[in-house]
Structure prediction request, 262 residues.
Amino acid sequence: MAVAYERIADELRQSIRAGELRPGDRLPAESKLAEKYKRSVPTIRDALRLLRDEGLIEKQHGRGNFVRQSRTTVLRTNLRHQWEKDRAREPEPVRLRTGATEHDTGLEIDDLVFHASYRYIESDERLSGIFDVQEGTPLLERTYRTRYAVESAPFSLVTSYIVRGLIEGNPDLLDETNEPWPGGTQNQLFTVGIELSRIEEHVTARPPTPEEAEELELPPGTSVLVLRKTSFDTDDRAVEMSDVTLPGDRTEMLFTTPLERW
Prediction:
């Protein structure tokens, strides 16, 4: 049998889902809710904490509890990689029309705010093993953040690594001011004669770090999906690897596997 705070939370939850309380609406003060439900303020706080943990409401310091604005959902499928490859050789005007984030969210390119930063690092043991190079090999590390313009949290936290020697034949690929690059990484690699043959994605889940929870604006208790994406060229050489951290409350992953006929 549900205890008092669970029953109160359930009634408020139903009001939110029915649209009686809409995103951005402020809930009555804790004292008012206590009067309404004829319960103590600590019981009300337990009910509100439960709703916050579910991501339905958020507490704004000094203002009260508000129905949380729903965030844009991202549907990430493995078919996106062939879509990216198909457009990698298209003329620039075609590549400028849309990118992977628009593909995954259904948003338009003008809806998005994009940020990229580059820096040079030396490969450590992990990255040297992935790229089959000696430790200390120069790499280009690229960090990406993309968000919906009306939201404050990015869709994901992305860090990409490429062996600098593979791409320095095209100096434009070393300049972060050229981002967002029309056609993405597959077109960038195409400009230096590299064609991808396969992409491996390794997905795990874990609690977020405090920094990740803050940047992704995660409700308490929400996990993140951690995706390691490794791209291989036609010589079966790893040419790019990305660490992608995805918010578990608004990311859906769909994997479609074509099966050969008997």
The two ends are 54 Å apart (CA to CA). Residues 165 and 171 are 11 Å apart (CA to CA). The mean pLDDT is 93.
